Each structure stands twice: as structure tokens, then as C-alpha cells.
Amino acid sequence: EVSTDDSEMAFCTLANREELNPEEDSVHHCLYQFTRNETLSETNKLLCDVCTQRHCGPKNNISEKKCVYTNAKKQMLISLAPPILTLHLKRFQQAGFNLQKVNRHIKFPEVIDLAPFCTAKCKNVAEGNTKVLYSLYGVVEHSGTMRSGHYTAYVKMRAMNNHLSDLVLRGQSQASETEPVKGQWFHISDTHVQPVSVSKVLSSQAYLLFYERLL
What we know:
single chain, alpha+beta, Cathepsin B, Chain A, seven-stranded antiparallel beta sheet, two-stranded antiparallel sheet, 4 helices
């Protein structure tokens, strides 16, 4: 969504992202890089209709050669905080003419705050809130190579989250929890299911991460 009604707020976030200093090889660093402020210049300049009309007159008299391009800034931020947050990590890279799987561990937290990555006018965040918290409840892990392998999952079994139901059905956000939703983690591989510790979950090579909104 492109917002042009308030240029002063265009690059503002709910929480100060400059205080993050995210650790390399972490989900926070991935989100920080994905939502960074970019400068569009040289061959990436933006077509400016206002500048073009100012220099060339009415739009119907403008040829493509006379269009005016200008430097600009671009930033992608979250404008609507979802009840369920799904993060898909890119676990492959180009190696010559082939694709190669990325096997290194990417750190991810039990509770993550999306506020530094949300626009200051995030639609479903109450005014004055500076946190948008999510609790981890599921992880998908892939073992193997780009050509073959096996998918397993870590899932948290917990009591029904009435707050999550309110978020899904009515878009309400009134909770004040800052701790992870309590529950028992299980590792699932085909028909094999066994309980595991949270430390085992957080040490996995995550491919997909599933969070539910707390606040």
C-alpha cells in the first residue's frame, strides 16, 4: 500500500528501529534488512508526474522522452498486523549455475516484537501502543539437500487462546501478555511424535515459523 497523505509519517515506525542493533543470522536481522530504507537513484529513479508536468505542461502533450525521473526513497513496512504471523526463510542461494541449500542456523525468539517493522499508523494497533508482540507456536524444519530431504515440525500444544479468537473474528487487541503462551512442545516426524524442550525447538534450522499475536 502506498501512502501519500502524510509524507512526514511515511518512514516512521511504531518503535525506534535504530535501537535494535540486530544480531547477524537472526530473524530480527532478516526483518531489519527487508524493511530498510532504500534510495532509488540512477537507473532506479522514480517517474515523477508533478516534475514532468511542471517542465512539460499538460500530461496529454508529454512524450516518453520528456518524462522526468527523480531520486526517491522506498521502504516496505507492515500496515496491518496479522493475527497469525508466518515467516518463510529463504534457505537457498545461487552457486554458479546451481542452487545451493543454506544450512546455517538462523536465530529466532519465542516472543517477537514487530513494532520496529510496523508503520506508525498501523491500522489494528491501538493508539499509544509501542509493542506488537507475537508468541511462537510452530516451526517447520527441512533436512537434506535441494533435490531431496525430509520435512519435520515442532508444534506447541496449549490451551485455547481466546484472545487469538478475538483477533481473528473481531480484530480486537486488548491483551497485555508479554510472555510466551504456555504449553508443551512436540517434535513430529511422519507418525513419530515426541515431547521436546523449548531449547531444542529454538536450536532447529527453521524453514517456516508460525507466531500468534499476543498484543
